[in-house]
Amino acid sequence: MSKPSAIVIGAGIVGLATARALAVRGYSVTIFERNEQAVGASIRNFGMVWPIGQPTGPLFERAMLSRSIWKQTCADAGIWHDEVGSLHLAYHDDELQVMEQYAGINKTYRDCALLTPAETLQKSPGVNPDGLKGALWSGTEMILEARAAIGAVARHLAEKYDVTFHWNTAISNVKTATVTSGNRQWHADEIFICSGVEFETLYPELFTSLATTKCKLQMMRLAAQPGNWRIGPALCGSLSMIHYPGFQSAPALPALRKRYEEQYADHLKWGIHVMAAQNHTGEITVGDSHEYGLVHDPFDKDFINQMILKYLQTFTSFKDIRVIQTWNGTYAKMTTGQTELIVDAEPGVLIINGLGGNGMTLSFGLCEQIIAARA
User: Fold this and answer.
1) CB under 8 A, 24+ apart: contacts of 336-339
2) For residues 106 and 52, is the Cβ–Cβ distance under 8 A?
3) What is the DSSP letter of 225?
4) Separation of alpha carbons 307 and 28, rounded Å
5) What is the DSSP string of 171-207?
6) Mean pLDDT across 275-289
7) Domain span(s) for CATH 3.50.50.60 in the chain
8) Bridge partners for 173 per DSSP
9) DSSP string, 128-150
């Protein structure tokens, strides 16, 4: 009996996660990627696996499933990863109150705790000690260098599971069991479209009928810190608490949001919250902003970067804050609050999309759950 076959369109994290879940179940998998390597949203974000951003329950469990798959994949493929956890830093009493409530609600479900200023500074030498009131520690976060990890996962899938890759091959049409690129065609039992914002080129009517938008984010990278100096955990300003749904369980959050709406109105207008994570070379990735709409200009806005850097310095104290790179990325996001878009475009064709900025955190878990339910 021949193996079931599957075609996956897109070699970003969603496509790779789908291919892995199929391959471990005995599928013969072929991935098509329009570029010679993945250059979209998957490599343009922090590269962090970020369970703390997910609310306790199914999404947190999905994030932890993703984390376990990431960890196993990194071990098998020799991919650098750093299980450093994270610190959300408080410099005002209302910020500390939200963190205290969060830790009280969640400490039985996940590795988290409220830290004193002294305990916080023991965790990270990169924290600004001036006015520090404490921090929320979470031990579940893991740092990856996405630019290297995404390509390494693709090579791992090819080597371990015989996944076939067609790079520089833009699929222009999908019909039932057939995909087309120019005058070439390929067939499979099942087709999975995991091409991020680009799925609108294959199903434009479907794309416009769905509650889908695009988010542009701006990111920066700071120079490698001197003397192999490490910041330890990923560091977050308290603005992140009103960005991630994981904090909505804290009763004091609405009051904190109200203060931020007055004090940080421009930051909220541009969707700015600030985080920093260090890679294996000592460089620090910093961001980000969020602009929503179906079309975005391709240019970075310097005033946004300056707002990010200024806020960064309220909670960090790094050795070298020189900016060595700036860039932007775009990902698909649902406007309804849905955490993903799973749509049967036609018989045998499934679209997996719309994870927002949570692709690195949720894709392995989501795709494992989707394929397990179908297999």
Assistant:
1) 336/211, 338/211, 339/59
2) no
3) P
4) 48
5) --EEETTEEEETTEEEE-SEEEE--GGGGGGTSHHHH
6) 96
7) 5-46+147-209+339-374
8) 180
9) --TT--EEEEES--EEE-HHHHH
pLDDT in the model for residue 20: 98
Tell me: pLDDT of 128 over 80: yes
pLDDT digits (tens, 9 = 90+) for 2-19: 899 999 999 999 999 999
Residue 243 corresponds to which amino acid?
A: H
CA–CA distance, 142 with 136 (Å, rounded to integer): 16
Q: Token pair 């070439």 is at which residue?
A: 184
Q: Which of 112, 33, 138, 19 is nearest to 69 (CA)?
A: 19
Q: How far apart are CA 247 and CA 226, in angstroms?
A: 35
Q: In what order do the strands lie in the sheet with 142-144?
A: 48-49, 142-144, 81-82
- Nearest partner of 354 among 372, 332, 373, 338, judged by Cα: 332
Q: Which amino acid is at 59?
A: L
Q: 0.90 cut: is pTM over it?
A: yes
191 pLDDT higher than 70: yes
User: Residue 296 burial by CB count (10 A; 0-12/13-18/19+): exposed, middle or buried?
Assistant: middle
Assess contact for 287 and 217: CB atoms under 8 A. Answer: yes
Residue 33 amino acid letter: E
Residue with tokens 């909220």: 268
Distance CA 96, CA 59 (A): 25
- Name the CATH superfamily for 122-130+212-334: D-Amino Acid Oxidase, subunit A, domain 2 (3.30.9.10)
Residues of the chain with CATH 3.30.9.10: 122-130+212-334
**How far is residue 333's CA from residue 200's CA, in Å, rounded to a whole number?**
13
In angstroms, rounded to a whole number, what is the distance separating the alpha carbons of residues 375 and 22?
A: 9
pLDDT of 1 over the 70 cut: no
| Burial category of 294 from C-beta neighbours within 10 Å (exposed 0-12, middle 13-18, buried 19 and up) | exposed
Looking at the DSSP bridge assignments, the partners of residue 275 are 236, 287
Q: How many CB atoms lie within 10 A of CB 230?
A: 15
CATH class of 5-46+147-209+339-374: alpha beta
